[in-house]
Amino acid sequence: MLDDRYALAHRLYPYERAADQDAEVAAHHPVVVIGGGPIGMAMALDLALRGVRTLVLDDHEGVGEGSRAICFAKRTLEICDRLGCADAMVDKGVVWNLGKVFHGEDLVFEFNLLPEGGHRHPAFINLQQPYFEKFLVDRIRQAQAEGAPIEIRGKNRVESLDVRDDGAGIEIMTPEGPYSITADWVLACDGAGSPTRRGLGLGFEGKVFKDSFLIADVRMKVDFPVERRFWFEPPFREAGDSALLHKQPDDIWRIDFQIGWDVDRDAELKEDRIRARIDQMLPGVEYEIVWTSIYTFQCRRMESFRHGRVLFVGDSAHQVSPFGARGANGGVQDSDNLAWKLAMVLNDEAPEALIDTYDAERCYATDENIRNSTRSTDFITPKSEISRVFRNAVLHLSRRHDFARPFVNSGRLSVPCIYDGSPLNGADSLPGGPAQTRPGAPCPDAPLEDGFLLHRLGTGFVLLAIGQEPPDTSGLRSVSIATPNAETRARYLVAADRALYLIRPDQHVAARWETATPVEIEAALNRATGKEMA
Amino acid sequence: MSALVTSRNIAIPDEAYDLLLTAHEGLTKDESDALNARLILTLFNHVGDLDVIREAIEVARQ
Ligand SMILES: Cc1cc2nc3c(=O)[nH]c(=O)nc-3n(C[C@H](O)[C@H](O)[C@H](O)COP(=O)(O)OP(=O)(O)OC[C@H]3O[C@@H](n4cnc5c(N)ncnc54)[C@H](O)[C@@H]3O)c2cc1C
To answer: How does pLDDT run across B3-47, given as a tens digit for each residue?
Structure first.
């Protein structure tokens, strides 16, 4: 009745009977998160750190074994840093910068992510998804011990929702039978197959790609350099139409083969078939197969991520092809966007209309993620004869001509979205200021004398004053940098001499000025908290 | 205003056209397709301007 759908890597939240199960009247919770994947856990942690009592219901007792996501981007690490668990991730993860692209035998070109200096976190780390999830849960346990109001219930499967205007009733199945609770807000973080989405009869439209990939994580001791290698039409032709080799912690390497659409999954997943492919790719190398899977991919999203008091977050709301690592990285940004808004609404600090901007901003961001993943996928798996001709023309030209290399698309970096046009954006009155920090943009990190800027910005609204004293705005925290260094100048001033930035709790810019009066700042703050929408 | 040059712009059109045909001489259909693709991409880069490229694609589609 409550069988596991997947094997566990870490059993972190074994089933325990909760008092709610013996309550006469269904117990009430302000926020219930359905699904304890990476996004549900990040969501719950962020909310609880903001003082919002949050209950996570997951149908398993821990983190699934399959690695799935391995590439976590700088923005994700910055968000996790705010949540207090980035250091564990970076310590365990593999930092990489170099990528090599081959066509057949030939190296077409190589790229270096060379993160510009002055950021606390690297451009990317590779880390198995189960570790990522475990570090989030470890941090939740620590936050709990410090009093954060968060509870995780393992082996609690949500069976159905009874959605009302002011919340929902939730039916839950456990190994000891069913019980029900009620909630003001339900956050559906139940993954791409979201039972919540299906239960509400909501659509999930998009594009399915007619190809499949065999993915194998293997353990081997080799002294290959720490770089991402990608082959189009690899010389080990029978192995696949494209292939990827990428390092993870613990001597594990991710191998991907593009194996076509009409494949017999069971046959292809047999160990000898998989070994035949890997042996062609890595002749003479000894390895142990740790995890394998075949995946097909879609790029799709829900039309709206908000359905009254039910909000969809992460893969339940959108799915992208893995090229460019925008799935989990995108979902963590959803959570980052929603947590402060929901906390403010629940604390009566903002009108409920603020929640609609979660939908507006994250749909906009999702479209950008889908556009990027779709383009990578179109390049990697050309869907017509002519698109293959152009793809190979790009690869052919790239060997000798640098101008063609930017066309090569084996997956674009996951970068955070700039919420241009968001209803929360206020004044952009900084003549000569850099485009990268316009309203809607995530704040880039910068080194300070004693640490890093993002760290200093903190977790609430903040006024960043550069080259001037912050105006006296009661109740609004400020951070001031009297004499900005070169990095801060380049990222926040360029041609301007001084600046004021109003920054949201998710560290996106709300408004900026050369200088501003308390009244102007107040107006921008009202706008950024949805008070003009109500 | 159109960004794409649609007025006559090549001094010796017959010469240019001949260059194109000569480049394809003796090629199979596949080789010719590949050459065309490389040529388009190379000229794309020379043009550089997305508006011009968009208009050129429109002209070609008519
Ligand atoms: C091969 C592959 C490679 C990938 N690589 C990357 C990458 O490099 N970088 C990246 O950013 N992303 C990557 N992704 C995407 C990434 O894995 C997903 O985006 C991510 O797991 C989404 O997290 P989630 O929490 O939204 O959903 P999930 O991880 O699917 O979690 C959903 C949770 O909800 C639970 N649940 C479901 N139904 C119920 C119910 N009724 N009641 C209670 N609980 C329920 C599930 O058990 C699960 O714990 C990759 C994906 C694949 C397949």
So the answer is: 999 999 999 999 999 999 999 999 999 999 999 999 999 999 999
Domain that holds residue A88: 4-94+123-204+300-368
B34 closest CB neighbour out of A389, A401, A407: A389
Residue pointed to by tokens 């900005």: A484
CATH label of the domain that carries residue A137: 3.50.50.60
DSSP string, A119-152: -SS-SEEE--HHHHHHHHHHHHHHHHHTT--EEE
The residues lining ligand 1, judged by C-beta closer than 6 Å to any ligand atom, are A 34-40, 57-60, 68-71, 129, 157-158, 189-191, 195, 215, 295, 314-315, 322, 325, 327-329, 331
In the block, residue with structure tokens 């990285």: A329
Q: Measuring CA to CA, which residue among A102, A1, A92, A83 is closest to residue A39?
A: A83
Domain boundary among A347, A368, A389: A368
pLDDT at B2 over 80: no
pLDDT band per the 50, 70, 90 thresholds, residue A487: very high
Q: Which residues pair with A231 in a beta bridge?
A: A102, A243
Name all contacts of A258-264 with Cβ < 8 Å and 24+ positions apart: A258/A211, A258/A212, A258/A213, A258/A380, A258/A381, A259/A212, A259/A213, A259/A214, A259/A294, A260/A211, A260/A212, A261/A210, A261/A211, A261/A212, A261/A296, A263/A212, A263/A294
User: Among A322, A352, A368, where does a domain finish?
Assistant: A368
pTM of the predicted model, to two decimals?
Answer: 0.95
**B 41-60 near A (Cβ less than 8 A):** 41-42, 45
- Mark whether A353 and A433 lie in a shared domain: no
Question: Has residue A99 been placed in a domain?
Answer: no
Number of structural domains found in chain A: 2
For residue A496, what is the domain's CATH number? Answer: 3.40.30.120
**Whether residue A70 is found in the same domain as residue A143:** yes
Band of the pLDDT at A473, cuts 50, 70, 90? Answer: confident
B36/chain A closest Cα distance in angstroms: 9
What number is the ipTM of this complex?
0.97
Boundaries of every domain in chain B: 28-62
Provide the shortest C-alpha distance from residue B45 to chain A (in Å): 7
